[in-house]
Amino acid sequence: MSNENIALVASALTNSRGTTILGHVSPYHAIVRVTLPNDQKINVNVDGTGDFLVPVPAHITQGMVKVTAVLPENSDSLSIVETEIKAPTPVVTGVLATRGGRRFLEGSVNQAKLEIVLWIAEKKEPIYIVPDQNNEFEIEVPDNVTANMLHVIATNPITGEQGVGDITVGVTTETTTVPILTDEIIAAYVSQASQPSLVGQDTQPVAVEPVVDEEEMAAARVIARQARRDNHNMQEEKMERSRKQNHKKRSPLSRFFHALFGRK
After folding, report:
1. Which residues contact 246 (CB under 8 A, 6 or more apart)?
2. Is 220 inside any structural domain?
3. pTM for this structure?
4. b or e along 64-77 (b: 16 or more beta carbons within 10 Å of the residue's beta carbon)?
5. Which range has highest mean pLDDT (22-26, 157-161, 184-188)?
């Protein structure tokens, strides 16, 4: 049986992301087990340097944790340490911001499951705030409210610890109205821009020779000729349809004389 001793240390670290059990054991091949306050037991993976960490479930926010280590070949080498899970002191921050003529209190807390209450000066009833999954919140407040009229208190319902927020004034943003450009506005602008600017009475308009591309002009002539042919053909078809319709409208006697004399 080995007389080797076990060195074991462990502590609980709690922040806004939750609680983690951090520890170290030597020798590193010792078997480590963590027992949580709800009596849940977790077998721990120890790395090659003897360090280990164990995330604690989010619903466990306080209580004593027992950590044990034992050598696999020596049950008498058992070592035990205890550490306490304690929620950090509540911290709440707030910023009073103005957007589009409306006022908002924006803020955050350092942990989940806190009870957050907003008190506004001259108001008898508090406003209860529910933060989102990122522990952040936003609530609209009256336009005449200033930072020193707001008091935010965050309370841990389990430990009873409280944190009072300091409200600061944030950046004010205004909404700029952008005019909609209609076709009439654009046309008027182009018309004005195309006219020469007169600096003085003696200023003479300058004639600008257009830049003509010969290939483009040739293509335009071809398109124009084709358009004239198409228009001529359409007129011919229209006249032919008109003659046929007039022929159908003649009376039987008129058609008889037309066939006999070749005219009406």
Report:
1. none
2. no
3. 0.49
4. ebbbbbbbeeeeeb
5. 22-26
